[in-house]
Amino acid sequence: MAYSLSLSLLYLGLLCGNGLVSARGSELFTADPSRGPHFMGCRSREQETFRCWWSAGTFQNLTEPGALRVFYKTKKALSEWQECPDYTRTVENECYFNKTYTQIWTSYCVQLRSVPQNITYDEACFTVENIVHPDPPVGLNWTLLNVSRSGLHFDVLVRWAPPPSADVQMGWMSLVYQVHYRVRNASHWEMLDLESGTQQSIYGLHTDKEYEVRVRCKMLAFDNFGEFSNSIIVHVAQIPSKESMFPTTLVLIFGVIGVVILLVLLIFSQQQKLMVIFLPPIPAPKIRGIDPELLKNGKLDQLHSLLSSQDMYKPDFYHEDPWVEFIQLDLDDPAEKNESSDTQHLLGLSRSDSSHFLNFKSDNESGRASPKPVDLPLVSRSSSSISDLGIQQTSEVEETPIQTQPTVPSWVNMDFYAQVSDFTAAGGVVLSPGQLNSPPVKKKEEENEKKIQFQLVSDGAYTSENTARLLSADMPPSPGPEQGYQAFSTQDIEGNLWNVEYLVSANDSQTPCLVPEAPPAPILPPVSDYTVVQEVDAQHSLLLNPPPSQPVICPHSPNKHLSAMPTMPMGYLTPELLGNLNP
Amino acid sequence: MSRSLKQVAVLLVALLCLDPHSRVSSAPICTHGPSGCHVPSLADLFDRVIQHSARMHSVSNDLHSEFEQYFLPSKNHIGKIYRKCHTSNILTPNGKENAQKLAREELTEVILKLLMAWRDPLFQLHQSMADQQDFNSFSSNKALEMGDMAHELRKGVEKVAEKMRVLGMLGNSVTGLSAAEAMLPLSESGEAMSDYELLYCFRRDSNKVQNYLKILKCRIVPEHDC
Question: Which parts form a coiled-coil structure per UniProt (chain B) (predicted)?
């Protein structure tokens, strides 16, 4: 008896040692077929009731209901083993403990017994709060928070409700939740942190991918998670990115086309410049204002007109330089001269080469460079005075003194003077040719006389046309024909214009007086070429007297001739005399 | 005669000096009134206390699971199951309905009793854990923190009880807990409980306190569906 008792106790102890279920042994839901009858697990859903499940195991003869029975005992004083208060009818091998039989914070032990044999196959001890597995949350849904700018990612907010069986409002159960999500049909679930509220955000999901989201809960400060809720599908369709790509490609294409058009326009607009850069032209000789073709063709008239329009012909120069005292007379070699006279040149009757003009030009600088104080009745004229009259005189005239017998210059054939015959509308002076058929001697004498009678003009330059007009306005018309000249028109101005330059000889010129040495030549008609310079105005132009009506017998000697001038001294006018003349 | 006269004079002077108004009595700085002080409502007090108890329970759970994981891998529950906690003598409602059926005063008293019972054992727990080399400093600090939290929670619950008494929600049956409640944690066999047993018991009791406070709040502070 004692032996059997000890044996049974030993066997019981072994069973107890083997069959102990941990306090949290609620994971044992899979029946272990290799074992005998055992508890699969005990669970509480809301911390108010709990259930226990068992399995017969390999002992097939115990599968019929009632063969195995559950006894429980609470860890309290004076407690006994009691049988399961409720064997669930609907579920096989389940023992249900309702609220009455459930005590929290109390240790329970349940035993699986076979009553006929009085064998305890399994035992489990636990406390109810440690076997609580809350029900899954309900009402899981999601809302879209935002979509990223690129349209590749989005965020969602997931919401749920606590399980209805859990009394969270009173706080009997404090639940915390855990959200899982994964790409659909993937193997790995992403876990988020425990959340005590009933919503959570999921960030960084990819568009065009389907996600599975589920949630489960457990009691705060306990370790047993409940079952997962039903999974929901989260999916956001990707906004077609072609629209965003489309404008960029268009912009690129238009940009390239625009740049190409700009380049083409640039090339066409700058074609000339580009041609110059790439194919520079060969420089050709060029005179400003003159067509090179004209020079080639050699049309002298046009060339003459062109050259005459140049600045060098302008008579304004002598205004700026009033103290050029001498009129330079060019004395060209007779060999260089053409047979035609200068007057003819002036009048444009003959065609001469441009050498005269060139010579003429060359004396410009010499004449203007140094106004020489001359004691001689030299008439020097700057080249600028030639403007319209174009009279040329050589410098050899300077050499010859007045008193000396005037040598016959080699230029005797040259006409000094040209009668102004007419005025153009533009104010130009038209010259009439001089007396060509006069006898050379007489002409010579006349010329000598004229030469002698040349007085030094104040500034040795012709006045401008305007001044000449002014002067001529005061002059009465010169009477009578001139003697030495042929075409002496009745116009006033021309004669007076001509006479501007000559001081003393104006009176004399009108008189048919001759030089005493000269043979008595026919009285020359009074030439109204000459007049008396009345005064010099502020502009340094000469104001002339009208010529006297009667010819006055000129004195024999030029000195007398000179002294007979009431107003003007004979001979050239020095600057001092000119200064006296000034008002 | 002169002696008695002196005594009478002294007595008279004492009587005169004992101005009732001059007696110093403790009065709260914040008197009733909206201006100046913010007096928390009873609901706020309960919320604070419940939050505190939840935190205390969480710490105790962490310590317990850590203990189980590192020091008791064998899961030998036989001994554990049959050990009794020193607070098992305190009658506590073991279910939701039982707690709801209990009177407010009794519930408050249970809470205070539990908290009071753990004042010294927790100090002992910390001491033993600090002494042993097995525990790291983190665990011993947790034990110390746990002890402090239990102490603060007790003070808080006392304040709540005072407030309830002032508001007339509690009767005067709640007696001041004296030193008589302090019990020594002794097992059945008379041995001192081990650290693991202490942790196990405290974890259970902290959960009790948390739930009791919630039930009490629900009954005192009228809320929706409570």
Answer: none
